[in-house]
Design goal:
One of its GO terms (biological process) is methylation. It catalyses: L-lysyl-[protein] + 3 S-adenosyl-L-methionine = N(6),N(6),N(6)-trimethyl-L-lysyl-[protein] + 3 S-adenosyl-L-homocysteine + 3 H(+). The chain is α/β, with parallel strands linked by helices and 210 residues long. It has seven helices and nine strands.
Length: 210
């Protein structure tokens, strides 16, 4: 990938500072990455596989935290969101308060250097965070390796990892997560047609930690 400001912390700090101001001004929660259907897809998978409602869930790069709010509305009670942008966590805290979801835990954390207490999760979810890391102008390859290592530390053995990406194909993601993880399922995503070829603009996969 070409390096991009989308891979920098400065970009996301500025973006979430704007969204935080907008929320305070007019109550708009901001952008939902990959749209509403991406959250529905995740929740449907959890429900279909009868994942217990008290399973510990980590949202990696939670942003505005709206996915966690939707999980809480679906009955999940052990929810944690992390983001390396303090403005993102401030925004998600305000949205959590507005929605009355006091049981959602939110922390400023860099997933590439997680604190010791960030461990033992049954489920980890990523909507676009691995994508952003992949665009980091400073050593994206090294940071992707750090990401996979962190995932192996925070996710329990046999825990599930649900990733949604617009930058990576299924085959590429299988290669990125080949050490320590195995593919369980590819989730259906919107398809597009161009020049007679059908493809997916978004890839959504479920891995299980070995």
């Amino acid at each position: 990938f070409s390096p991009s400001v989308l891979g920098t912390r400065e970009h996301w700090d500025a973006a979430y500072e704007r969204e935080l101001q907008t929320f305070q001004d007019i109550g708009d929660t901001g952008e939902i990455w990959f749209g509403e259907e991406s959250m529905v897809r995740i929740i449907r998978w959890l429900e279909k596989h009868k994942v217990p409602l008290d399973s510990s869930v980590l949202d990696i790069g939670t942003g505005n935290g709206v996915l966690l709010v939707e999980l809480a509305k679906s009955g999940y009670v052990n929810l944690t969101g992390i983001d390396y942008s303090p403005s993102a966590i401030q925004l998600s805290e305000k949205i959590r308060e507005k929605e009355g979801m006091s049981n959602i835990k939110l922390k400023v954390e860099d997933f590439l250097a997680p604190s010791a207490e960030l461990s033992g999760f049954d489920i980890c979810i990523d909507k676009g965070t691995f994508d952003a890391i992949s665009l980091d102008p400073g050593d994206a390859v090294g940071k992707r390796k750090l990401y996979v290592g962190s995932l192996g530390r925070v996710l329990k053995p046999e825990g599930f990892f649900l990733i949604t990406s617009c930058n990576w194909t299924k085959e590429e993601l299988l290669n990125e997560f080949r050490e320590g993880f195995e593919i369980l399922e590819e989730l259906p995503t919107p398809k597009f047609c161009f020049g007679g070829r059908i493809g997916n603009s978004v890839t959504a996969l479920v891995f299980q930690r070995k």
